Amino acid sequence: MPRSVNHVASRAKRKRILKLTRGYYGARKNVWTVAKNTWEKGLTYAFRDRRTKKRNFRGLWIQRIGAAARLEGMSYSQLMGALHKKGVEINRKVLADLAMNHPEAFKAIVDKVKSV
After folding, report:
1. pTM of this prediction?
2. Domain membership flag for residue 15
3. Into how many domains does the chain fold?
4. Which domain holds residue 104?
5. Cα gap 59→94, rounded to integer Å
6. In a domain, 77, yes or no
7. Contacts of 60 (CB under 8 A, 6+ apart)
8. What is the pLDDT of residues 59-87, one digit of tens each?
9. Are 80 and 92 in contact (CB under 8 A)?
């Protein structure tokens, strides 16, 4: 008796992954083994970079706060130390947003903690 193989399911699986690799360069988009390996590697990068993104944004926030603090005559570390000493509970993300979009509010916070 001939062996029964579910070609419908296996073809659908291949088509699904080849659809996900649309837009890739060269054989990465249409050669099954290459496309599958590229897609799997891409998932690894996505997993890794979801964590890296958090580090990158924290660094960006620190740079923005530092630049705005320098305009007010303080360094980043002096500002953060003064905030902690005064007990002002504001995170870097919000502080960076204030520094970029609402400089008068950022200045008010700096003036409040300068008198430590």
Report:
1. 0.79
2. no
3. 1
4. 27-114
5. 14
6. yes
7. 96
8. 999 999 999 999 999 999 999 999 999 99
9. no
* Structure-token pair, residue 34: 């290459």
* Residue 56, C-beta contacts closer than 8 angstroms, at least 6 positions apart: none
Whole-angstrom distance, CA of residue 13 vs CA of residue 18 = 9
**Is residue 19 one of the residues assigned to a domain?**
no
In whole angstroms, give the CA distance from residue 46 to residue 101.
Answer: 30
pLDDT band at 116 (very low <50, low <70, confident <90, very high): low
Whole-angstrom distance, CA of residue 49 vs CA of residue 56? 10
Cβ within 8 Å of residue 19, ≥6 positions away:
none
Q: Is residue 13 part of a domain?
A: no
CATH, residue 71: 1.10.1900.20
Distance in angstroms (rounded) separating the CA atoms of residues 3 and 12: 20
Provide the token pair at 7.
């070609």
Closest by CA position to 68, among listed 9, 34, 19, 110: 110
